[in-house]
Specification:
By secondary structure, the protein is α+β, with helices and mostly antiparallel strands. It is built from four helices and ten strands; from the N terminus they run βααββββαβαββββ. A seven-stranded mixed beta sheet has the order 1-2-3-5-6-9-7. The protein has a three-stranded mixed beta sheet with strand order 4-10-8, with no helix packed on it. Helix 1 packs antiparallel against helix 2.
Length: about 160
């Protein structure tokens, strides 16, 4: 399996993988809208034997006061490739790229047991968001103390 940056030629396959993984088109629509809005920070695909089997998108979050933060969403793996480490490889590679770009933190809305393995934990009470207080709303600091001060984070408008 190869994990690489997504290219425009990958967009149809990405749409198929994301829609199949979530069993609906809404998340695939979000991916496309984030691209159109220019809010994509890192977008990767996993390719196995020439077939796109996974996708992850990291978004530029709006933060007040200003902070360079990423939002992981969505992470999708084709149903027939789930449970084989594809999502783990995509998440690890994407987090590394966000860190390399200078992001100070990343947030995710997802299963705590899954995302905890990458270092995410419940977002601190200093982070306000419509999802604040939910166990699924998690954060990972790339720079220690990045989320120590009160901050409001918002996903791109494509998330509705």
């Amino acid at each position: 399996m190869i994990v690489r940056a997504a290219a425009a030629a990958d967009h149809p396959a990405i749409r198929s993988v994301v829609a199949a993984a979530f069993d609906r088109a809404e998340e695939a629509d979000i991916v496309e809208a984030v691209r159109v809005d220019g809010a994509a920070l890192v977008e990767l695909v996993a390719v196995e034997d020439g077939e796109t089997v996974g996708h992850v998108l990291f978004n530029r979050m709006t933060c007040r006061p200003a902070l360079f933060a990423a939002g992981l969403a969505p992470l999708a793996v084709a149903p027939n490739h789930q449970g084989r480490g594809v999502g783990t490889a995509l998440a690890r590679a994407g987090l590394g790229r966000c860190r390399d770009l200078g992001a100070k933190a990343c947030v995710v809305l997802g299963a705590p047991a899954y995302y905890g393995r990458f270092g995410f934990s419940v977002a601190p009470n200093t982070v306000s968001s419509p999802y604040a207080g939910l166990a699924a709303f998690q954060a990972l600091e790339f720079e220690p103390g990045a989320l120590a001060r009160p901050i409001a984070v918002a996903y791109p408008s494509a998330f509705g």
